[in-house]
Amino acid sequence: MPANILNLSTYEVTHIDENEHDYHVTAAVKALPIACVHCHSTNIRGFGRREQLIRDLPMHGKRVGVYVDTRRYQCQSCNKTFYAPLPDIDEKRKMTKRLVEWIGKQAITRTFTSIADEVGIVEGTVRSIFRDYINALEKTVRFEIPQWMGIDEIHLIKPRCVISNIQNNTIVEILKDRNKPTVTRYLSQLKGLDQVHYVAMDMWKPWEHSKPK
């Protein structure tokens, strides 16, 4: 049996092919379902199978494609069919959860095209993952309103506005761009702007008209 080079305990690796640019890994889910996902009856039987290509983290400078033998079942009680769940796989995309998280983090400092080439996916998928990653961060991360607010620019793929806490020398927020509507909308939605005593910014004109009143 080939070694589990994936380091995913929920899968059993059955075959590995390697070439100059790719690892092609054939694997199967270890824990198979024992009950119907619809009615929870245990009276189920095999009803075919299909192979699914799942993308995973690049390894040794090569793209990784995991070919998962996914089993289909039919419930003898409700007559509905279902496929065996795939653990550790993203619900929206045919890739591992760890790959989705890795792409989100990488996209902060790298171009979407370079990530897409390294993983073996299209640029649009990287863009979509990055958007979801940023949206998730915005929902979970909350910063205190600084008394000394800095409004500056950083270049992450493209120019973006950076809101900072000058006193603590920390970043409060990185906006999607540096345009006046974006900055104005962000500042208008902030709660506790009355706590801001001073604002420091560069001389780029749109920001002067966006600063908190």
Task: Describe the structure in your own words.
It is elongated and about 70 Å long. A hairpin with a 2-residue loop joins strand 3 and strand 4. By secondary structure, the chain is α+β, with helices and mostly antiparallel strands. It has 3 domains: about 90 residues, no CATH class; about 50 residues; about 60 residues. About 25% of the residues lie in helices and about 35% in strands. Strands 1, 2, 3, 4 and 5 form a 5-stranded mixed sheet that branches. It has a 4-stranded mixed sheet with strand order 8-7-6-9, with no helix packed on it. Helix 1 crosses helix 3 and helix 2 packs across helix 3.
Defining key terms:
Transpos_ISL3, 213 residues, 4-stranded mixed sheet, Transposase_DDE, 9 strands, single chain, 5-stranded mixed sheet, Transposase_HTH, elongated, 5 helices, 23% helix, alpha+beta
